[in-house]
Give the backbone structure.
Amino acid sequence: MDKTELQQITKFLSQVSFFSEVSDISLKHLCQNLNSETFYKGDTIFEKDDAGNAMYVILNGKVKIHENMHTYGFIGKGECFGEYALIDSQPRSASVTAEEETSVLKIERPYFIDLMTKDSGFAQGILSVMIKRHRELDSTQEQLANSKKQLEQANGKMSGLINGAMDAIIMFDSKFRIIVTNPSADALLENDDALQRNVLFFFDEASAELIESIVKNEKEDNVDALNNYLPSVVKVIGSDEKETLNEGTISRYGEGEDTFYTLILRNIEERLAAQDTISLLTNQTEYLADEIKELTSNYGIIAQDDTMIGVLNLVEQVAKTDATVLINGETGTGKELVARAIHQASTRNDKPLIRINCGAIPANLIESELFGHEKGAFTGATASRKGRFLLADKGTIFLDEIGEMPLDLQPKLLRIIQEGEFDPVGSSETVKVDVRIIAATHRDLLTYSKEGKFREDLYYRLNVFPIVVPPLRERGDDIHLIAQEIINQFSAKLNKKMNPLGEGDKALLSRYQWPGNVRELQNIIERAVIIAQNGNISWDTLIPKSSVDGPIHADSKAEKIYSSEEMTKLERENILRALKKTRWKISGKNGAAAILKLKPTTLTSKMKALNIVRPI
């Protein structure tokens, strides 16, 4: 059906009495699945006792309604027949035969019922017409005096449709006196005898004023027809004082003293609760999806160098405990991978790992993001929200860039660490949670705390088990293994066959200092694979030259002779690098002495001679 035909059929149906209360939008929905059929004079459209499965609207022509030789009447363009087949499949009560060439629109029951369910505006319009017909039964009875049985069937079916509706249907007159209710309305109002009572008494003040203003404005504006969704949710207060939130529609028919209004209300309490649950589950699903994505495409933690093997050993040691972990390392070193490894190796690995970047969320929103908020807690809080600590209950929360957390929020985090509880924004109710906390930062939090930029007590609470992730430039041949694995991943993803790294390639990769660490390596390799020709990568055109020119021309510098003062300075800088790498641990397997291949006593002596003192 093209656009022009759709408009014509919609306009035509709007003038059919059965659809007179249905909006144009809903009529367009109806027209999307209608069939047009043509019958010639004498053709039987259906016979008495046939199973009902559709109703018909006459586009052009005329039909006869009859039983054998007895004729009940004739109907023509714009009139309907067979409506009751939309409700059930009871046998047809009469036969219908074309009196001349007749075109009809056929509306089948399954599609009609589906539309009634999905389009509340359509359902409300149809119900309004049926209710109107219900009130006009006395007049209909006079017109169909010879068809009493058919009238009783129509009355029963329409009443069944109203009484069987799950939505509450309330009709009231121009003085707001209730004149019709269905069982759903009686249950909503908690009253089986609500007739003749003022309908406004069953609403809270704001909702009563809303309904009253709609009716009043409609009268003053002399609107021909009222058929609107209620602009906001209304609160019904039953006779037993049970309060419920409802959405609905209001419509009018009749004129003057014979004006009546129909309210169709739907209780949305369960839906709101379901939406809240869905929101919680959706958030958890998003976090879990992110976790799965990381676990399946992050190239794992590739480690053969002793520095990173030491980190993995620490992961194994702390994973089975609930100790708070502080991961320190430069940007891009893989701190989040270490956090995920701890979670996966822990007893909480069947629960969510919830991640939040404290530096990526505006300061005015991070409290709500972490701890949640109640509806109306601040401007824009139109609904309650579960915070990420609640989403992480029984699991792990990873606080990335913890050094960026606002100072005024840090006491709340400290309370969770100490007592396992917090108060959502705008709530006086304390929430208890069981969460394992892993934090990460590229900053020196101890120095930060001395400068008043981070709470010192929070630092010590977070630093129960510190782990330092070494930068890529200090991981030896790991860089080659990681680079090759990333090349393989992007090669498969982009369906491009790549040659393995050669010795020259490895030398170039090792000479560069990689200030962006693994993340920078990943970005360069992705670009390299995209522009690679015949499986070869020109690393010298991709790696910043300023960082490798010096080492590449090392032969020219090998002839330089250093003075005693320069040698002392070089040795001092080398020892300082080793001490910083080990966080000033001198002896032991992972101490600075082991890295420098010196005895701890020898290193201590050199530190004194070179005036190397650990900073406070």
Summary: The chain has five domains: 3-118, 159-267, 275-468, 472-558, 564-609.
